Structures are given as structure tokens and as C-alpha cells.
Amino acid sequence: MEPLEALIAYTFRNPALLEQALTHPSLAYETQRSQVDNQRLEYLGDAVLELILSEHLFRAFPEGSEGVLTKLRARLVSRPALARCARRIHLGVYLRMGRGDEASGGRARDSTLADAFEALIAAVYLDGGLEAARDLVVALSRDVLDRLQAEPTEENPKGQLQEILQARGPGILKYVLLREDGPDHRKTFIAGVEWNGQSLGQGGGGSKKEAEAAAAEAALASAALAALGWPNAAL
């Protein structure tokens, strides 16, 4: 676990907490052995994340109303946002999981990564206290926090994409569900977005709505959109 500890700049005094945070429930199910998985830590980590981010937003937006702060926090603790934090430290590589879940793409699944990230935050909190957890959360969320500070209004990638494409003239913008992964209680949806039959991007999320938004985000940054003449794409 030393490479992961180096990535998060934190060394555990109790390595068992880190091992628990990285143990996916599928391992016990597949091996039929008693395994302490990361679900309890995930529960605690969710609360720790909300506290840290709520305090950060409270201080960063002194004029922000309760409603505004709640919407900003929702963007930070969404499944895609937490999965992005997990990918920054390659968390999926370190997960202990069943072979079936791994074979179905579990290490890269947003839901798996988001849950593991919450569990990791809880493990750091239990091992080193609130300040250690805060340092990790703020460090891994710094780019998003800075972007919120600069542009606090909620992003609407589907609306932005539609506006860009409609400016080009008539055409058909279509979102298609490409596949569903995972068990019923932890499904991940993969969606694609097309313009006049041309694929512009794909994305995933814990719901069809999240997947479509992620596909729109991918399209806004894609070379395919740049090829259609949109100058700000693929920057």
C-alpha cells in the first residue's frame, strides 16, 4: 500500500483501516469467506466529506444562501465527481475485489470508485483525525473547488451542447443508452451522444441522466466536436 500512501501524502498508523477501505464487498461474496469490506467506512466517509466540503463552501462563499451552498455541495459529492477524485490517485488499481466484478470493469466503474473514495476518507479520518481527512479532500478536489469559486453557477453540459449544435443549423441531437453494468442496486449506465448520426462522445454515471450529462461533457471537449467547427472544443 506504500505507493498509494505516497499518492495521498498520508501514512497510516493502522494499515488495517486502509486495507478495509480498499476491500470491495464482492470479495467476500465470491470467496465465501468472512471479509471486512468498505461499506461501513463508505457510510462514515459520506458524512465526513459533507462536513469538510460544507465548511469549505461556507467560508468560500460568505454571501451564499443555504440553497446555493447546497447545490454547490451536491456538485462536489456527486458520484462522477468523487470518481474523478479516485482516478487522480489511481484508486481502482489498489482495490481488493472479486474476479467477476473485476472482469466486468468494476475497477473503472464510477460507483465502485466513488464508494472506495468515501471509504478512504473515513479511514484517514479514523486514523489521523479531521485535519488529515480535510487535507486529503481539499488537495484532491482543489481544481473543482477553484472552478466553483470562479464559476459558481451550475453547469449544464447538455444545454451547452444543444446550443452549440443548434447554432450550426438544423440537425438531430440524440442520446443513446449504450449499456448497463453492475448489479441492480449499483448499476452504472453508459450513454452516447450523436449529432446527425455522428458520435460525439460517451460517458457514464449512476443514472441515465448522469450518463447523458457525462456524454455531453465528453462531446464538449472532443475532437469530433472540433471537427464540426466549434473552436473551443478539445482544448
In short:
With 235 residues, the protein is mainly alpha-helical.
Characterization of this structure:
This protein has twelve helices and three strands; from the N terminus they run ααααααααααβββαα. It has 235 residues and is mainly α. The chain has two domains: 149 residues, Ribonuclease III domain (Ribonuclease iii, N-terminal Endonuclease Domain, Chain A); 71 residues, Double Stranded RNA Binding Domain (2-Layer Sandwich). It has a three-stranded antiparallel β-sheet with strand order 1-2-3. Helix 4 packs across helix 9. The longest helix is centred in the first third of the chain and has 22 residues. The chain is globular, with a radius of gyration of 19 Å. The two termini are 35 Å apart.
Structural class: mainly alpha
Which sequence of strands runs across the widest sheet?
Answer: 1-2-3
Please state the overall shape, judged from the principal axes of the Cα atoms.
globular
- Mean pLDDT, rounded to whole units? 85
Number of strands: 3
**Main sheet makeup:** 3 strands, antiparallel
**Rounded radius of gyration (Å):** 19 Å
Low-pLDDT sequence parts: 231-235
CATH-level-4 superfamily name of the largest domain: Ribonuclease III domain
The percent range for helix content is 55-70%
CATH topology descriptor of the largest domain: Ribonuclease iii, N-terminal Endonuclease Domain, Chain A
The total of helices stands at 12
H and E order: HHHHHHHHHHEEEHH
- CATH class assignment of the largest domain: Mainly Alpha
How would the blueprint of this fold be written?
Blueprint: H1 2-8, H2 15-21, H3 25-31, H4 39-60, H5 66-76, H6 79-88, H7 99-103, H8 110-128, H9 130-150, H10 157-166, E1 173-181, E2 188-195, E3 198-205, H11 208-220, H12 223-227
